[in-house]
User: Fold UDP-glucose 4-epimerase from Georgenia muralis.
Amino acid sequence: MSTLVIGGAGYIGAHVVRLLLERGEDVVVVDDLSTGAADRVGAATLVELDVAGDGAQTSLERVMSERAVTSVIHFAARKQVGESVARPAWYYQQNVGGLANVLAAMENAGVRNMIFSSSAAVYGMPPVELVGEDVECRPINPYGETKLVGEWLLADCGRAWGLRWTALRYFNVAGAGWPDLGDPAVLNLVPMVLDRLERGDRPKIFGDDYPTPDGTCIRDYIHVLDLAQAHLAAMDHLTSDAEPTEHVFNVGTGTGASVKEVVDEIGRASGLDVTAEVEARRAGDPPQLVAAADRIGEVLSWKAEHGLTDIIRSAWEAWQAGPRRIG
Ligand code: UFG
Assistant:
């Protein structure tokens, strides 16, 4: 019996793989290594395969049968909002097409359990202070749409052939559980600030005139190790005898931090001068996006152990360990 982690060589996936290996599970990783790295999967078996590519379904079915896979954790996806706006059809091919191939293979191979990486991007610009799972989903870009469509597809497979599934809607993921597993991309606030500091540039703040206490955008930052633990909690719940009552969970802390607070925390962790340049607002940024995180606590008994200080300290430590691969 083994767990198949698709996208297990990526930033979040590699944390889940390491935790699964630590608790003695047999793990197979499928990854196309387009943004992941082979040295992140440790003792797991790595199969290099693009789930959205030609013949992917057949190859996946073979892996599932040969390795007696009983559960799948599906991370593999494109996640750049701006790129999704520029290349919508490709995003649907990659994110929805890839998931469809995985699910078709699971149906044929008789694999019934799936944990899916969803995103707070499904909510768009929700008009509430704390976003609960039942808020109406109105994604504002193709990336968020592909995650919402993914959830619908899982629900359809649940009805059609008894797929047992859980979608985790991640808020703002940062930090590192181990120094060698830092975020390899420079796409989000924390690595973008660290990257500018490394180059001797000042951090950028995209807008300080939002209707928030210090004028900068507020987000719910979640430590990647806490997020990885949430996957294990979700998997344990899914594979227990109990019939799942909820399928969709926010993974956040319920507490927000502003861009300025994050930048200041980076200054404290690094000892560097983080005096920032304020730029114009970035299109499509909601002033505040913070999770209502009660459901995951009640149903999965999970809660975040690490706050912003741990997140930033671990990100700084991993950044110094380097190397970054994707810019
Ligand atoms: N920001 C800066 N300076 C930077 C980088 C970011 O001020 O150099 C600001 C952004 O404008 C935003 C905040 O920092 O206000 C966080 O930005 P990120 O790009 O790190 O994260 P987002 O909240 O925009 O995006 C995250 C995920 C997306 C997901 C989105 C919505 O990265 O995948 O949440 O849930 F789609």
